[in-house]
Amino acid sequence: MTIKDNIFKAYDIRGVYPSELNENNIQVIVKAIYTYLKPKTINSKFLVAIGYDMRLSSPILFNSAKKSLL
Fold it and tell me: Cα torsion for 5, 8, 13, 14, to the nearest 10°?
């Protein structure tokens, strides 16, 4: 799977649904972020917040990201 690097912004991830950002690659991205953060928080708990806007694809991507974290 190839994920275009132009979807990664300074403070968020944005891409055209479903060609650049979809249920499959959002799971890969979320798992990579979790894998990166987990060792840095060994001695403490950490909270992950997932947000979305009013776009029709937002609930689909949110649920996919949430499923990956759980």
Answer: -60
In angstroms, how far is the first alpha carbon of the chain from the final one?
Answer: 22
Residue with tokens 């950490």: 46
pTM for the model = 0.85
62 and 26 Cβ atoms separated by less than 8 Å: no
**Residue 22 predicted with pLDDT over 90:** yes
Residues 6 or more apart whose Cβ sits within 8 Å of residue 17? 55, 57, 61
Place of tokens 């990579």: 32
